[in-house]
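ok so i was messing around last nite and threw this chain in just to see what happens. nothing serious, just curious
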Amino acid sequence: MLFSSIPFLYYFLPAVVLCYFLVPRALKNTVLLLFSLVFYAWGEPKYVFLMIATIALFYGCGLAIGKAQKQSWKKFWLIVSVVVGLGFLGIFKYADFFVTSFNAATGLSVPLLRLALPVGISFYTFQSLSYTIDVYRGDVPVQRNPISFGAYVTLFPQLIAGPIVRYIDVARELDSRTHSWDEIAQGLRRFIIGLAKKVLIADQFALVMKMFRETDAPSVLFYWIYATAFMLNIYFDFSGYSDMAIGLGRVFGFHFIENFNYPYTSKSVTEFWRRWHMSLGSWFRDYVYIPMGGNRVKKSRWVLNILTVWMLTGMWHGAAWNFIVWGLMFAVLLLLEKWVPALQKLPTILRRGYVLLAVCISFVLFNAEDFAQAGGDLMGMFGFAGVPLVTQQTLYYLGSFAILFVLGFVGCTPVVKNLGNRVYKTKVGAILEPIVLIALLLLCTAFLVDGSFSPFLYFRF
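result:
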């Protein structure tokens, strides 16, 4: 089920909100668990059993770690949770990738499993891993209530596309959280803004990309329009989903961490990754990079740590070589920034331009179906594809979508948020805000009724 769908907005969400606030406090997690399972089963009911198995695995291992008297047994149950949990992820997400790569390297024909990828498996697996790791470290107490733990793993606002919510961040709110009209109002405000980013902006950039793929008159300019459209599409799509998830969390009394902080305003690649998909970056930092030694090791080991973390980051996004190369590309850029201090002394406009160019090129690789398509797109962008610099069709599309691109560029900066906050603090703004939000909701509804199916990009991860 999609947040940006009529069934969710006008049937599922009202039903869960009504039931949630009607039941006593002791049953609220039960309501969230049951509705979250329904939410997940809506699209692929058979994989609900995989999710239930994941809940049972990590809940049981958490109890075992808590009961174990010896450190060796605590470590044993932690290893069980990590190996089996990552085993589920490996079988369903990476098995065919490894088999295909093995066949290509050896010339053999080992049959593929051809298993469908369970939606959101990367997100809920990492969330579950954070629980047993933190219990093992002694950072959080064991969760003994299976309903509360199940609600944590399946919580529908962030279940299938993040942000990655660690157990330590919501442990207290799972057992005791408060609700208020102000929190609900702020949550709904954030949700509608995220919905508008997805439906009114991201989906329109997806249309530009579709036109590029279908054109019979490509040009160098059109290749750059496509690359820029995808940069803006993925930002508004994923940040919009994160806004909706964070907003819904506040409605139900949870405060999820932020996932984006205007990454396209960054002045370095290092800063970009502190602002983009922040929940994933902090997860790899705390559970992979630092345990490997971080930067407190020999230089050669530190380089290996960086390459390993970014290779895994690429693999987390998808079971394909272009994702691995994409991750390693950022590893190289991050290392260059550490080794070439002169990059940080460039004028701000050049630093921001370098980051945007690097990210733009990386996302062309990220979005390609294979290396051949990525190579063709990059050659086209730099004038090596034998296409004209510009065509009449390109100019027509550029004029048609000029306003969309302007909105996209401005929306990637804090300008709109800062202006909105200033207006909201005025008496007129306080009156206008609910009117504007209702208008946005109705406009999004009109687009959804009239539009085509457009899933969130990160569903495939």
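not much to say yet. The mean pLDDT is 93.
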